[in-house]
Amino acid sequence: MQRLKRLHTFRINFAKCIPNLILLWVWVLVGGLLFQEQLIPTAAAANRVSPLTIDTRIMHTEPWGFYCDPQFQNKTPLVISAQTQYHQDILCGIWPDIAQHLAKKAGLNLQLSLEPYARIWQSLDAGQADLSFLIRSAERSHLAPSQAHMFDFASVVIVRSGLHLTDYQDLQNLRIGVLRGIRLSPRFDHDPKLNKIQLRNYELMVDMLLHQRLDAIAGNNVSLFYLLQKKQALDKVNVQPLILQKTPVYLHMAAGLYAHPYGQVLIQANQALREQGVYQHLIDAYVGSQWRLESQH
Predict the structure, then answer these.
(1) pLDDT in tens, 152-180
(2) What CATH code would you report for 153-246?
């Protein structure tokens, strides 16, 4: 009889505990969701296709990133999947090609959007984007860990035909086109004596040089030589550039992505692609091997 009484008492007490158990389960579930949300790289996560999709902004300029069809009107970001082959019918250029290899190696999806160079920095700083591929500078080194090095190109100055650059002093009194927000070398960037004209993209810079509205253009040798070749204008410039410095290109990550395990996966994938020479060969396909630093001396 005592045994049945104890069993009855247990059932009554257990029934009283059920609401508390349900409440505890709800708190555990909500806490888990909040913890998971903290791991998602940026506040833009609500618009992601999946938590494995990395919001990637790339510079909108040839040959780095551009719409394959200039008349293309749908600007919806393109998701490059780790599982499916990327088809070059929407976005073309070096960065989409590199993103395809990076996504496959890392096993992640990259959501690509084209933006002007200066706006990419704003998107990263504001946490509106997760990832980009950019020149590493001292003031932004916190976005580019040392293990995220991709490749190097040369920061150069090219002058129009009839002018010659033998050393840095020859830049005095020249009208020099530069990309707004770009960092080329500490000396050049902070030299107040140079007549630097900031422009929104490389295409405009090259056009102004060819129409003699500029005397020189400064930037990375890949972009400048590509555009001059495309316009069949190599004979209108002095093809021996003044090299400002060797310029490293890095993966740049917003703080949330770098602290997330996905960030470390991307870094490891990047190191593997760099060691295999994949990046150099992808760039060669657009501009030949003359961009490589060993061919600039």
Answers:
(1) 999 999 999 999 999 999 999 999 999 98
(2) 3.40.190.10
